[in-house]
Amino acid sequence: MEYIDAFVKAFMGTLNWTWKSMLFEVPWYTNFFWGIVLISLVIWGLEIVFPWRKEQAIFRKDFWLDAFYMFFNFVVFAIIISGFYKILELFFADLGLTMQSFQVVDLSAFPMWAQLVIFFVVLDFVQWFTHILLHKFKVLWQFHKIHHSVKEMGFAAHMRYHWMENVLYKPLKVFGLMLLGGFEPGQAYIVHFVAIAIGHFNHSNIKITYGPLKYIFNNPVMHLYHHAYVLPEGKYGVNFGISLSIWDYIFRTTYIPEDSGKIELGFEGDEEIPKTFWKQSVYGFGKYGRK
After folding, report:
1. Are 161 and 73 in contact (CB under 8 A)?
2. N or C of the chain: less Cβ packing under 10 Å?
3. d(CA 256, CA 267)
4. Measuring CA to CA, how many Å separate 69 from each of 36, 41, 112, 128, 190?
5. What is the full DSSP assignment across 180-213?
6. Count of beta carbons in the 10 Å neighbourhood of residue 23
7. Is the pTM of this model over 0.70?
8. CA 9, CA 264: separation in Å to the nearest integer?
9. Distance separating alpha carbons of residues 288 and 291, to the nearest angstrom
10. pLDDT of the chain along its 291 residues, tens only?
11. CA dihedral sign of residues 87, 136, 148, 286
């Protein structure tokens, strides 16, 4: 009963918070619903005014599919899965494992700006490592194929990913948080908004590399080659960076041969990917998972 009660409370709490966010009844800096809408409109506007691939339509191929994914993954699935994460938390607590069990850094001992930087860097590295696993292992790649089925890049492609990726990413992100003693900076919303904006930019039809900062921050030119149909021989992927590019430079997984932006996207066999959201949502299971 404790687990059921925890599930219901977490589910209803997330649902209620999301509804209040839609009605502007939460502090603006925690309103991720309208935050992602605003960020999307700004970056889409920049795509329209400063297009990298000028021949690409404003409403590019699969624009509306990706827009649906954006709200499903960021809003709907977050509500659905919240109860399961709470159950997982209770399960580990019953095993004697808490958010402080693997702590290696006490964030509270640092000033706020340092807390935010450390929080950002640690969680980004965990996501970078998880991203590599999605490419390296066939069983995980089956789900990640959905993200790589994008054939024309635009900001909303950032959120086109199989719901199973949420299931895979979240536990590892929680582990990253455990390394910080479960401490999330009071202004962590800054990190979350920055990560959303960088992710949108990386998938956008905008040519920007940030100059010398390209060795630190991921960018559209670098990330486009992550989605390239043709990869260097023997590679299962390149440019795995989420928000930061520094991990790819450190571990030598970079590949940026040119910057025209006119390369074929996808992967060998991408014609097998279903065209609708509902069929894509079961891709990776059953007969699809054996391909």
Report:
1. yes
2. N
3. 17
4. 13, 16, 34, 21, 23
5. TTT---TTHHHHHHHHHHHHHHHHSS-----GGG
6. 10
7. yes
8. 46
9. 6
10. 788 888 889 899 999 999 999 999 999 989 999 999 999 999 999 999 999 999 999 999 999 999 999 999 989 998 988 888 788 778 877 877 666 666 777 777 888 888 899 889 989 999 999 999 999 999 999 999 999 999 999 999 999 999 999 888 877 777 777 777 666 777 888 999 999 999 999 999 999 999 999 999 999 999 999 999 999 998 999 999 999 999 999 999 999 999 999 999 999 999 999 999 999 999 988 655 444
11. negative
What is d(CA 143, CA 140) in angstroms, rounded to the nearest whole number? 6
The secondary structure of residue 152, as a DSSP letter, is S
Q: What residues have CB less than 8 Å from 61, skipping those under 6 apart?
A: 151, 152
The tokens of 211 are what? 């100059």
**Rounded distance, CA 225 to CA 148, Å?**
11
Cβ contact 223:244 at 8 Å:
no
Single-letter residue type at 190: I
Q: List the structure tokens of 42.
A: 């700004």
Q: Collect all residues with Cβ–Cβ distance below 8 Å to 149 and sequence separation of at least 6.
A: 160, 266, 267, 270, 273, 280
First to last CA, the chain: 41
